[in-house]
């Protein structure tokens, strides 16, 4: 696992009444995945119907991060909301491609 001197950040950026962007920075791994999952849950409970996870500043993602993404992709499909990703750097996108889930996820461009 790569060593990172930058702390993990999970910034919430509301974009209107229905859409919110959650911008991540640092490592999305076993230590930080619960924070992301909790933030998405609180935002959904607050009424946001469009959740966007911005992975552009994620330096590393392990299977825990992948599980959060897949969980929210499934929850959105069954709960009448939308979930999309802003693609991350090559090392992050490689996780989606290696696990063959990239085609089942929705990727969007940054606003």
Give a verbal description of the structure.
The structure is a single chain. The protein has about 110 residues and is α/β, with parallel strands linked by helices. It has one domain: 2-Layer Sandwich (Transcription Regulator spoIIAA), CATH 3.30.750.24. It contains three helices and four strands. Strand 3 (about 50-60), helix 2 and strand 4 form a beta-alpha-beta unit. Helix 1 runs parallel beside helix 2 (about 65-80). The longest helix is centred in the middle third of the chain and has 17 residues, at about 65-80. It is globular and about 35 Å long.
Number of helices: 3
Could you tell me how far the N terminus lies from the C terminus, measured between alpha carbons in angstroms?
Answer: 31 Å
The main β sheet shows up as: 4 strands, mixed
Number of domains: 1
CATH architecture: 2-Layer Sandwich
Q: List the helices and strands in order.
A: EEHEHEH
Strand order of the largest sheet: 1-2-3-4
The average pLDDT score comes to 94
Low-confidence residue ranges: none
Number of strands: 4
Percent of residues in beta strands: 25-35%
Spell out the CATH superfamily: STAS domain
Give the structure's gist in a few sentences.
With 111 residues, the chain is of the alpha/beta class.
Topology:
Blueprint lengths: L8 E7 L3 E10 L4 H13 L4 E12 L1 H17 L2 E5 L3 H9 L13
Parallel strand pairs: 2-3, 3-4
Antiparallel strand pairs: 1-2
Helix pairs in contact: 1-2
Structural features:
single chain, globular, 111 residues, Transcription Regulator spoIIAA, 4-stranded mixed sheet, alpha/beta, 35% helix, 3 helices
């Amino acid at each position: 696992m790569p060593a990172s001197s930058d702390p993990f950040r999970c910034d919430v950026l509301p974009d209107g009444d229905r859409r919110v962007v959650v911008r991540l920075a640092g490592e999305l791994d076993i230590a930080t995945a619960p924070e992301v999952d909790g933030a998405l849950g609180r935002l959904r409970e607050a009424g946001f119907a469009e959740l966007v996870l911005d992975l552009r500043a994620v330096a590393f993602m392990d299977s825990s991060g992948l599980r959060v993404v897949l969980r929210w992709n499934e929850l959105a499909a069954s709960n009448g909301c939308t979930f999309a990703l802003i693609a991350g750097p090559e090392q992050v996108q490689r996780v989606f491609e290696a696990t063959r889930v990239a085609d089942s996820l929705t990727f969007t461009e940054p606003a």
